[in-house]
Amino acid sequence: MAVETTKDYQTFFDPMVYLLNCFDQPQKDAFVLRRLTDFWIQIAKDGRKFTNMLEYGTGPVVSRLINAAKHVQSIIAAEYLPANRQAMEDWINQDPKAFNWRPTFEYVVQKLEGMTPDEVEKREAEVREKIKAVVHCDVKAENHLEIPSEISAKYGPPFDIVMTCFCIEAAVESEKEYRNQIAYLAGLLRPGGYLVMHGVVKERFYKVGDKLFYSFPLMKEWILESMKDAGLKNINFDLFSSNFSREEFSSVYPIEDLKSGLKDHYSVYGQLC
Ligand SMILES: C[S@@+](CC[C@H](N)C(=O)[O-])C[C@H]1O[C@@H](n2cnc3c(N)ncnc32)[C@H](O)[C@@H]1O
Protein backbone atom coordinates (compact mmCIF):
# COMPACT_ATOMS: atom_id res chain seq x y z
CA MET A 1 0.00 0.00 0.00
CA ALA A 2 1.34 3.44 -0.94
CA VAL A 3 2.21 5.64 2.00
CA GLU A 4 0.72 9.13 1.94
CA THR A 5 3.47 11.70 2.33
CA THR A 6 3.49 15.48 2.23
CA LYS A 7 5.87 18.13 0.89
CA ASP A 8 3.81 20.90 2.42
CA TYR A 9 6.29 22.27 4.93
CA GLN A 10 4.39 25.55 5.39
CA THR A 11 1.29 23.79 6.71
CA PHE A 12 2.61 20.69 8.42
CA PHE A 13 6.25 21.04 9.53
CA ASP A 14 6.34 22.07 13.17
CA PRO A 15 9.93 22.95 14.18
CA MET A 16 9.40 22.21 17.86
CA VAL A 17 7.83 18.80 17.16
CA TYR A 18 10.80 17.94 14.89
CA LEU A 19 13.30 19.08 17.52
CA LEU A 20 11.60 17.22 20.36
CA ASN A 21 11.27 14.06 18.21
CA CYS A 22 14.84 13.93 16.96
CA PHE A 23 17.08 16.08 19.15
CA ASP A 24 15.77 15.77 22.73
CA GLN A 25 18.67 13.41 23.50
CA PRO A 26 22.02 14.01 21.80
CA GLN A 27 22.58 10.25 21.50
CA LYS A 28 19.82 10.09 18.90
CA ASP A 29 21.98 12.19 16.62
CA ALA A 30 25.27 10.61 17.65
CA PHE A 31 26.19 9.32 14.19
CA VAL A 32 26.06 12.80 12.65
CA LEU A 33 27.69 14.49 15.65
CA ARG A 34 30.58 12.01 15.73
CA ARG A 35 31.15 12.11 12.01
CA LEU A 36 31.16 15.93 12.06
CA THR A 37 33.65 15.93 14.92
CA ASP A 38 35.88 13.52 12.95
CA PHE A 39 35.48 15.60 9.79
CA TRP A 40 36.76 18.77 11.44
CA ILE A 41 39.64 16.96 13.16
CA GLN A 42 40.63 15.42 9.83
CA ILE A 43 40.54 18.56 7.69
CA ALA A 44 42.14 20.83 10.31
CA LYS A 45 44.88 18.39 11.33
CA ASP A 46 47.67 20.11 9.40
CA GLY A 47 46.77 23.43 11.03
CA ARG A 48 44.75 24.70 8.09
CA LYS A 49 42.44 27.59 8.93
CA PHE A 50 39.04 28.03 7.32
CA THR A 51 37.31 31.31 6.77
CA ASN A 52 33.67 30.88 5.95
CA MET A 53 30.93 28.29 5.79
CA LEU A 54 27.40 27.80 4.48
CA GLU A 55 24.92 25.33 5.86
CA TYR A 56 22.22 24.73 3.25
CA GLY A 57 18.87 23.67 4.72
CA THR A 58 19.58 23.99 8.43
CA GLY A 59 16.00 23.39 9.44
CA PRO A 60 15.63 24.52 13.06
CA VAL A 61 18.84 22.63 13.94
CA VAL A 62 21.85 24.33 15.55
CA SER A 63 23.86 21.24 16.48
CA ARG A 64 25.61 20.73 13.12
CA LEU A 65 27.44 23.99 13.76
CA ILE A 66 28.96 23.20 17.16
CA ASN A 67 32.34 21.93 15.91
CA ALA A 68 32.35 24.32 12.97
CA ALA A 69 32.36 27.44 15.15
CA LYS A 70 35.82 26.47 16.43
CA HIS A 71 37.26 26.46 12.92
CA VAL A 72 35.56 29.14 10.84
CA GLN A 73 35.18 32.88 11.17
CA SER A 74 31.68 33.12 9.73
CA ILE A 75 28.67 30.92 9.06
CA ILE A 76 25.64 31.58 6.87
CA ALA A 77 22.65 29.45 7.77
CA ALA A 78 20.23 28.98 4.86
CA GLU A 79 16.77 27.49 5.34
CA TYR A 80 13.61 27.16 3.25
CA LEU A 81 10.86 27.36 5.88
CA PRO A 82 10.25 30.70 7.68
CA ALA A 83 9.28 28.92 10.93
CA ASN A 84 12.63 27.09 10.91
CA ARG A 85 14.55 30.30 10.27
CA GLN A 86 12.65 31.81 13.20
CA ALA A 87 13.64 28.85 15.42
CA MET A 88 17.30 29.48 14.48
CA GLU A 89 16.92 33.20 15.24
CA ASP A 90 15.19 32.45 18.55
CA TRP A 91 18.16 30.37 19.66
CA ILE A 92 20.68 32.96 18.47
CA ASN A 93 18.78 35.70 20.32
CA GLN A 94 18.40 33.57 23.47
CA ASP A 95 14.63 33.88 23.30
CA PRO A 96 13.02 31.92 26.18
CA LYS A 97 10.91 29.92 23.71
CA ALA A 98 13.99 28.62 21.86
CA PHE A 99 14.89 24.92 21.93
CA ASN A 100 17.44 23.99 24.60
CA TRP A 101 20.60 22.83 22.79
CA ARG A 102 22.70 22.75 25.98
CA PRO A 103 22.73 18.91 26.38
CA THR A 104 23.91 18.60 22.77
CA PHE A 105 26.64 21.22 23.27
CA GLU A 106 27.77 19.32 26.38
CA TYR A 107 27.80 16.06 24.42
CA VAL A 108 29.85 17.47 21.55
CA VAL A 109 32.23 19.72 23.47
CA GLN A 110 32.87 17.46 26.48
CA LYS A 111 32.29 13.92 25.28
CA LEU A 112 33.31 14.10 21.62
CA GLU A 113 35.91 16.88 21.68
CA GLY A 114 37.15 16.09 25.20
CA MET A 115 37.04 19.69 26.42
CA THR A 116 36.29 20.91 29.93
CA PRO A 117 32.76 21.89 31.08
CA ASP A 118 33.58 25.61 31.06
CA GLU A 119 34.08 25.41 27.28
CA VAL A 120 30.40 24.60 26.75
CA GLU A 121 29.00 28.06 27.42
CA LYS A 122 31.88 29.62 25.51
CA ARG A 123 31.09 27.47 22.48
CA GLU A 124 27.42 28.44 22.60
CA ALA A 125 28.45 32.09 22.51
CA GLU A 126 30.89 31.36 19.69
CA VAL A 127 28.23 29.67 17.55
CA ARG A 128 25.87 32.61 18.14
CA GLU A 129 28.58 35.07 17.18
CA LYS A 130 29.75 33.17 14.08
CA ILE A 131 26.30 32.87 12.48
CA LYS A 132 26.26 36.09 10.49
CA ALA A 133 22.91 35.61 8.75
CA VAL A 134 19.95 33.27 8.51
CA VAL A 135 18.75 33.44 4.90
CA HIS A 136 16.20 31.84 2.58
CA CYS A 137 16.99 28.94 0.26
CA ASP A 138 14.87 26.85 -2.07
CA VAL A 139 16.06 23.93 -4.20
CA LYS A 140 13.02 24.44 -6.44
CA ALA A 141 13.46 28.15 -7.09
CA GLU A 142 15.52 29.63 -9.91
CA ASN A 143 17.63 31.34 -7.28
CA HIS A 144 18.54 28.48 -4.91
CA LEU A 145 20.00 30.80 -2.29
CA GLU A 146 19.10 34.36 -1.35
CA ILE A 147 22.02 36.03 0.35
CA PRO A 148 21.68 39.86 0.48
CA SER A 149 24.58 41.48 -1.41
CA GLU A 150 26.02 43.24 1.66
CA ILE A 151 26.19 39.85 3.43
CA SER A 152 27.63 37.93 0.46
CA ALA A 153 30.27 40.61 -0.10
CA LYS A 154 31.63 39.88 3.39
CA TYR A 155 30.88 36.23 3.99
CA GLY A 156 30.60 34.46 0.62
CA PRO A 157 30.14 32.68 -1.70
CA PRO A 158 32.66 31.32 -2.37
CA PHE A 159 32.88 29.27 0.83
CA ASP A 160 35.53 27.04 2.40
CA ILE A 161 32.87 24.66 3.64
CA VAL A 162 29.39 23.93 2.32
CA MET A 163 27.37 21.56 4.46
CA THR A 164 23.91 20.11 4.02
CA CYS A 165 22.13 17.55 6.19
CA PHE A 166 18.93 15.65 5.38
CA CYS A 167 17.77 18.48 3.12
CA ILE A 168 18.38 17.82 -0.58
CA GLU A 169 16.53 14.52 -0.53
CA ALA A 170 13.57 16.26 1.13
CA ALA A 171 13.17 18.48 -1.94
CA VAL A 172 14.38 16.82 -5.16
CA GLU A 173 12.20 14.52 -7.23
CA SER A 174 14.61 12.89 -9.65
CA GLU A 175 18.18 11.68 -9.92
CA LYS A 176 18.90 14.46 -12.42
CA GLU A 177 17.59 17.12 -10.04
CA TYR A 178 19.70 15.63 -7.24
CA ARG A 179 22.86 15.69 -9.37
CA ASN A 180 22.17 19.29 -10.43
CA GLN A 181 21.77 20.33 -6.83
CA ILE A 182 25.06 18.70 -5.79
CA ALA A 183 26.78 20.48 -8.70
CA TYR A 184 25.20 23.74 -7.54
CA LEU A 185 26.41 23.29 -3.95
CA ALA A 186 29.93 22.29 -5.07
CA GLY A 187 29.95 25.40 -7.28
CA LEU A 188 29.64 27.55 -4.14
CA LEU A 189 33.05 26.33 -2.91
CA ARG A 190 36.40 27.93 -3.46
CA PRO A 191 39.16 25.57 -4.68
CA GLY A 192 40.35 23.44 -1.77
CA GLY A 193 36.98 23.78 -0.03
CA TYR A 194 34.84 20.89 1.21
CA LEU A 195 31.28 19.77 0.58
CA VAL A 196 30.02 17.76 3.56
CA MET A 197 26.68 15.99 3.59
CA HIS A 198 24.62 13.79 5.85
CA GLY A 199 21.41 12.02 4.97
CA VAL A 200 19.69 8.72 4.42
CA VAL A 201 19.87 6.40 1.43
CA LYS A 202 16.81 4.63 0.06
CA GLU A 203 14.39 6.50 2.31
CA ARG A 204 10.92 7.39 0.95
CA PHE A 205 9.63 9.38 3.89
CA TYR A 206 10.43 10.54 7.38
CA LYS A 207 8.16 11.21 10.31
CA VAL A 208 7.55 14.45 12.20
CA GLY A 209 4.82 14.04 14.83
CA ASP A 210 1.98 12.23 13.03
CA LYS A 211 2.97 13.51 9.55
CA LEU A 212 5.05 11.64 7.01
CA PHE A 213 7.25 13.91 4.90
CA TYR A 214 8.36 13.00 1.40
CA SER A 215 11.97 11.93 0.84
CA PHE A 216 13.58 11.05 -2.49
CA PRO A 217 15.18 7.59 -2.20
CA LEU A 218 18.86 8.17 -2.92
CA MET A 219 21.32 5.53 -4.05
CA LYS A 220 24.86 5.55 -2.68
CA GLU A 221 26.24 5.44 -6.26
CA TRP A 222 24.38 8.63 -7.22
CA ILE A 223 25.82 10.49 -4.25
CA LEU A 224 29.38 9.45 -5.12
CA GLU A 225 29.01 9.98 -8.88
CA SER A 226 27.38 13.37 -8.51
CA MET A 227 30.20 14.51 -6.20
CA LYS A 228 32.85 13.30 -8.64
CA ASP A 229 31.03 14.91 -11.58
CA ALA A 230 30.97 18.17 -9.60
CA GLY A 231 34.79 18.11 -9.40
CA LEU A 232 35.10 16.79 -5.85
CA LYS A 233 38.01 14.53 -4.95
CA ASN A 234 39.32 12.75 -1.82
CA ILE A 235 35.77 11.55 -1.17
CA ASN A 236 35.17 9.93 2.19
CA PHE A 237 31.87 7.99 2.50
CA ASP A 238 30.57 6.24 5.58
CA LEU A 239 27.36 4.36 6.41
CA PHE A 240 25.92 4.11 9.91
CA SER A 241 25.75 0.33 9.65
CA SER A 242 29.49 0.04 9.14
CA ASN A 243 30.42 1.67 12.44
CA PHE A 244 27.65 1.71 14.98
CA SER A 245 26.36 -1.05 17.16
CA ARG A 246 22.66 -1.54 17.78
CA GLU A 247 23.31 -1.76 21.51
CA GLU A 248 24.63 1.76 21.59
CA PHE A 249 21.38 3.13 20.22
CA SER A 250 18.79 0.75 21.61
CA SER A 251 18.20 2.95 24.66
CA VAL A 252 17.16 5.97 22.57
CA TYR A 253 15.61 4.41 19.44
CA PRO A 254 12.72 1.99 19.10
CA ILE A 255 14.04 -1.33 17.80
CA GLU A 256 11.97 -0.96 14.61
CA ASP A 257 13.86 2.24 13.71
CA LEU A 258 17.14 0.44 14.16
CA LYS A 259 16.02 -2.33 11.84
CA SER A 260 14.88 0.04 9.12
CA GLY A 261 15.99 3.55 8.31
CA LEU A 262 18.73 4.32 10.80
CA LYS A 263 21.24 1.87 9.40
CA ASP A 264 21.10 3.70 6.08
CA HIS A 265 22.31 7.05 7.40
CA TYR A 266 25.32 8.21 5.44
CA SER A 267 28.06 10.74 6.02
CA VAL A 268 30.18 11.96 3.11
CA TYR A 269 32.60 14.72 2.27
CA GLY A 270 34.77 15.63 -0.67
CA GLN A 271 37.20 18.38 -1.60
CA LEU A 272 37.11 20.67 -4.61
CA CYS A 273 40.55 20.34 -6.15
C1 LIG B 1 14.57 16.61 7.51
S1 LIG B 1 14.68 18.37 7.53
C2 LIG B 1 16.41 18.56 7.81
C3 LIG B 1 16.73 19.70 8.71
C4 LIG B 1 18.18 19.76 9.23
N1 LIG B 1 19.11 20.09 8.19
C5 LIG B 1 18.62 18.50 9.93
O1 LIG B 1 19.75 18.08 9.70
O2 LIG B 1 17.87 17.94 10.74
C6 LIG B 1 14.45 18.76 5.84
C7 LIG B 1 14.72 20.19 5.51
O3 LIG B 1 14.52 20.38 4.10
C8 LIG B 1 13.98 21.67 3.93
N2 LIG B 1 13.33 21.79 2.61
C9 LIG B 1 12.13 21.32 2.21
N3 LIG B 1 11.87 21.72 0.96
C10 LIG B 1 12.93 22.44 0.55
C11 LIG B 1 13.27 23.12 -0.65
N4 LIG B 1 12.45 23.16 -1.70
N5 LIG B 1 14.44 23.76 -0.73
C12 LIG B 1 15.32 23.74 0.33
N6 LIG B 1 15.05 23.11 1.49
C13 LIG B 1 13.88 22.47 1.60
C14 LIG B 1 12.98 21.79 5.08
O4 LIG B 1 12.57 23.10 5.33
C15 LIG B 1 13.78 21.17 6.21
O5 LIG B 1 14.56 22.12 6.87
What does the secondary structure layout of this molecule look like, with pairings?
Blueprint: H1 9-12, H2 15-22, H3 30-43, E1 52-56, H4 68-71, E2 74-79, H5 82-92, H6 102-112, H7 118-130, E3 131-137, E4 145-146, H8 149-155, E5 159-165, H9 168-171, H10 175-186, E6 189-200, E7 205-208, E8 211-214, H11 220-229, E9 232-239, H12 240-243, H13 246-249, H14 255-259, E10 265-272
Parallel strand pairs: 1-2, 1-5, 2-3, 5-6
Antiparallel strand pairs: 3-4, 6-10, 7-8, 9-10
Helix pairs in contact: 6-7, 10-11
The structure holds S-adenosylmethionine.
S-adenosylmethionine is lined by residues 9, 57-59, 61, 79-81, 84, 137-140, 165-167, 170-171, 206.
Radius of gyration: 18 Å
**Overall morphology:** globular
* Strand percent estimate: 15-25%
Helix content: 40-55%
Q: Total number of β-strand segments?
A: 10
Bound compounds, please?
A: S-adenosylmethionine
Oligomer: single chain
* Ends distance: 46 Å
Count of DSSP H/I helices: 14
Strand order of the main beta sheet, please?
4-3-2-1-5-6-10-9
The computed structural class is alpha/beta
User: Which spans have pLDDT < 50 for at least 5 consecutive residues?
Assistant: none
**What can be said about the biggest beta sheet?**
8 strands, mixed
Mean pLDDT: 93
What's the SSE pattern? HHHEHEHHHEEHEHHEEEHEHHHE
Short summary:
One of its GO terms (molecular function) is N-methyltransferase activity. The chain is of the alpha/beta class.
